[in-house]
Amino acid sequence: MNAFPKTSALMARGCEFLGTEYAIMCGAMSWVSERNLVSAISNGGGFGVIACGAMTPDLLDAEIAATKAMTDKPFGVNLITMHPDLPDLIAVCAGHDVGHVVLAGGIPPKGSVEAIKAAGAKVIVFAPTLALAKKLLRSGADALVIEGMEAGGHIGPVSTSVLAQEFLPALSEEHVVFVAGGIGRGEAMAGYLEMGASGVQLGTRFACATESIAHPDFKKAFFRANARDAVASVQVDARLPVIPVRALKNKGTEEFTAKQREVAGVLDREEIAMAEAQLQIEHYWAGALRRAVVDGDVENGSLMAGQSVGMVKEEEPAAEIIAKLMAESEAALGGRRAA
Ligand SMILES: Cc1cc2nc3c(=O)[nH]c(=O)nc-3n(C[C@H](O)[C@H](O)[C@H](O)COP(=O)(O)O)c2cc1C
């Protein structure tokens, strides 16, 4: 018997789309979402997604093979649209018969959606505006993730609750839409499902799962943090566009602001060109997440985290987190009480 009948009924379309027991995706997190966490999520009935990030095609190939060895359940691969080897990465996914490819980080370049679909996989995209969402769905994307500014990592300017009100009534009848950003408990998940979402995507809540390889000090920083500690980076100069990143405030976030001022000053004195200035800003952050996740440098590294971080209190197996979310949702929908 299904222990979560009301939630499962609302998730039916999302589960069918993903091929899972529950329509709960663990959003790709660079350095965190590798074979161990991805397989644990999928084995727990959710949908794990490998974060390709800046991996080369060979590294992605090895990561997919290793993940397949740890689970026979469906999982996806998240590719960053501006990766210089995007066509090769798509080919690697096709070679492994990956069922779902998530395109993140910008508008999918021409031909990428078609290339993924030609290999038989489904394409999941992000869209910051309703107009762009409609365009992407019209031109072949199979599902959409809307992600609010409560989320960890790179963020847009609008909150999840507002995006949900704008997008779900307009799209959810015809399309599969997943809601992400700020979901820490099952009650919130139930709310978005009732509004028409086919499923949800969480990152922060899963980053410290027992199976996550994140450094123990990275996890400790999450357990100690409150919602208000997960702040968005600020852009200090209009000429230097910086996509905001939500992360726990530390020396690294302060230094990032100082670095922007320094580069803006050099730009004022016309000592470097704009492109070089922007590159310096990007390079500054490159590797910062790795320093925190892999090396445990929680002072200078980037502790990307969403506002739901205050609800992350201890290590728990991924399957238990998923089961808790389902129980909380079911209770909220008037079914069985959550434990
Ligand atoms: C540590 C961390 C790293 C992330 N890295 C990526 C990434 O590489 N690519 C991506 O598309 N999203 C990334 N995200 C966003 C997540 O996939 C997910 O959409 C987000 O965490 C959901 O919001 P939540 O944090 O409020 O649960 C990252 C989030 C975190 C917390």
Automatic annotation (TrEMBL):
GO molecular function: dioxygenase activity; nitronate monooxygenase activity
Keyword Oxidoreductase: yes
SUPFAM superfamilies cross-referenced by the UniProt entry: Inosine monophosphate dehydrogenase (IMPDH)
Source domain of life: Bacteria
Keywords: Dioxygenase, Flavoprotein, FMN, Oxidoreductase
InterPro entries from the UniProt entry: Aldolase_TIM, NMO
Protein name: 2-nitropropane dioxygenase
Organism: Aurantiacibacter aquimixticola
